[in-house]
């Protein structure tokens, strides 16, 4: 086997390896995309549930803040009445 034949075989082997590597890269990229899609599908219900829970908590917090504000207003009115008309000692 002469040098030209060896070089030709080496070049052929390199071309095959390059082709195989390219095919492997494409398959790997496609598998990674599939995994990403599956992860997104898996986390979507959890995200929606968390968003729903956050909305409910926010509504409860607003209700509590409203009740506190009403209580503070009533307390201020009571204090004002007591200052204007102090009870007899």
What can you tell me about this protein's structure?
With 89 residues, the protein is mostly helical. 92% of the residues lie in helices and 0% in strands.
Highlighted features:
89 residues; mainly alpha; 92% helix; 0% strand; rod-shaped
Write the SSE topology:
Blueprint: H1 3-84
Tell me the major beta sheet: none
- Our measurement of the CA-to-CA distance between the termini, rounded to an integer number of angstroms, reads 123 Å
- List the helices and strands in order: H
Proportion of beta-strand residues: under 5%
- The residue fraction in helices comes out at over 70%
Mean pLDDT across residues? 93
Number of strands: 0
How many helix segments? 1
The computed structural class is: mainly alpha
Radius of gyration: 37 Å
Q: In terms of per-residue confidence, which ranges show pLDDT below 50 for 5 or more consecutive residues?
A: none
Shape: rod-shaped
Produce a short descriptive summary.
The protein is mostly helical. It contains one helix and no strands.
């Amino acid at each position: 086997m002469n040098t030209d034949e060896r070089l030709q075989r080496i070049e052929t082997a390199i071309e095959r390896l390059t082709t195989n590597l390219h095919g492997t890269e494409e398959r790997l990229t496609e598998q990674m995309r599939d995994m990403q899609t599956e992860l997104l599908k898996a986390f979507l219900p959890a995200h929606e549930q968390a968003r729903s829970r956050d909305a409910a908590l926010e509504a409860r917090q607003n209700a509590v803040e409203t009740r506190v504000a009403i209580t503070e207003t009533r307390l201020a009115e009571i204090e004002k009445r007591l200052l204007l008309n102090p009870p007899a000692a």
